[in-house]
Design a protein that fits this description.
With about 210 residues, the protein is mainly α. The mean pLDDT is about 90.
């Protein structure tokens, strides 16, 4: 009944008042399970107010549900420009990079997105790990290795730091920079002793 009343009202008021009604009507329709109706109303709201973050979020969810990945990444880019908190910017742009790589197969764009994110917001463990892993999958271990090292400096967990340094050492080794691998290994051996570190030391010495 409330939704029906708002649906009638929305067509009778000015644009400014219409946006206000739509902000109430669209989520109400979503709660009632009328996904198509809610999406349509969110689209109307977004046309009236392109900076409405709730409308953008709802439209992005709808795009993902429908497999419209191009629209989803475009909406995520818009949401990122409007986010006021650094944590929100990171979360949104990480999601965008994931869709670029996994859904659209545009790994280079995903890499550029993550590099720009680090430049804009500073080192963050999750972003560093995702970007380093992406570099490795794209066959660029020497670009991944410094990121693993930066990640090891960010984490407060000693075991995780050791694992990240091990990854850095392995990446340098795979990339052919044996001297860098040896330097990382020397630092690693000072505070982490394990079978994997011992095997890595053997691999480095064989080079």
């Amino acid at each position: 009944r409330r939704a029906a009343a708002l649906g009638t009202l929305v067509d009778l008021v000015s644009d400014r008042a219409r946006a206000k009604v739509l902000r109430e009507l669209a989520p109400l329709l979503e709660e009632l399970g009328d996904v198509a109706g809610a999406t349509g109303r969110f689209q109307e709201l977004s046309a009236l107010d392109p900076n409405d973050v709730d409308a953008l979020s709802a439209l992005e969810r709808a795009a993902e549900k429908n497999g419209d990945w191009e629209r989803a990444v475009a909406l995520l880019a818009r949401r990122a420009t409007l986010a006021s908190r650094v944590d929100d910017v990171r979360r949104i742009r990480l999601r965008r990079a994931t869709l670029l790589e996994e859904r659209l197969g545009r790994s280079d764009e995903a890499r550029t997105e993550l590099e720009a994110l680090l430049a804009a917001t500073g080192d963050h463990l999750s972003v560093l790990r995702v970007l380093a892993d992406l570099h490795q999958r794209l066959g660029a271990p020497l670009r991944a290795a410094p990121l693993w090292m930066r990640a090891s400096a960010v984490t407060t967990d000693r075991a995780e730091a050791a694992d990240l340094l091990r990854r850095a050492c392995e990446a340098f080794l795979v990339g052919g920079d044996v001297d860098a691998a040896r330097r990382v290994l020397e630092g690693l051996e000072t505070f982490a002793q394990s079978e994997s570190v011992a095997l890595l030391a053997v691999a480095v010495e064989r080079q």
